[in-house]
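1st attempt posting a full record on here, be nice pls
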Amino acid sequence: MTTEPQTLSEQEYRAIIGVCILAAFADGAQDEAERAQIQRILNGFSDAQVDLTAAYQDVLGGKFSLAGAAGQLQSPGAKALAYEMAVCVCHADGDLKEPERQFLANLRLTLRLDAATTETYQQSAQTLASQPFGASGPPVIDPNREAEIDRMILNASILNGALEIIPHTLATMAIVPLQMRLVYQVGKRYGYELDRGHITDFLATVGIGLTSQVFEGFTRRLVGGFTRHLAGGLLGGLMGEAAGSAFGFATTYALGQVARKYYASGRTLSTAQLKDTFASMLQEARSKQGRYSGDITQQSRQVNVADLLPLVKPS
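the predicted structure (as tokens):
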């Protein structure tokens, strides 16, 4: 299945966004915070050539359906991309619920996609999203622990910045599992064994929704692809890389630093303190990103999508 959106029309871009919004709400369990986050994401692209806010309103108003999407997605590449993104959004929290499973089955049938190919992709996404975070031995206490954690956070941030500019949907989806792995590793360095539920709650507390973050990554990728398609040549490509890598790098760096402060404090920081620290670290990360842009670009050329699964294991 192809994932490179270089020949899509404006109609197809908007239809793919609509499919992703439907996917985000497919399980019927998204809380108000997650819904507000998705709306905020789309409002943030108000200056894009594709009217994303209108697409969101059409979905909520019942004016956009899978049948309508099928009529707007003309090329095989557009249909494949819409399905791949929907799969990743549905798998964002690592737990595919029955309504989401039914939604993806209906999407495949509506778009008339090959069952064997889509099943393979769905299995890859499921495996990537649901890596266990169980006990794996005693905590690692290094005399140079703080320097080690610094390196670990920076390396994870560079890797996620690189994944954001790799032209493959599974690369973008891997960012959340890698962020969860980073929190797991930081907690472990301070003597805490964390499970998936705790890590998910921690991300939500600092303001990172699993579904909304995957959705935002795809929206940035899609709008960036549309920009490159319009601008053409080197300029458009560089614009897309800068926007994507800054997002992946900054959120990962901020999350790692907040996790460090939280577990170093003995998990005593309040929700308000965690949110404030995350916002502060996010600003710091954005100022640092340019310094590591070369490392991010180099990493993007070295990572193979087939290597993503071993990367998300806790270790």
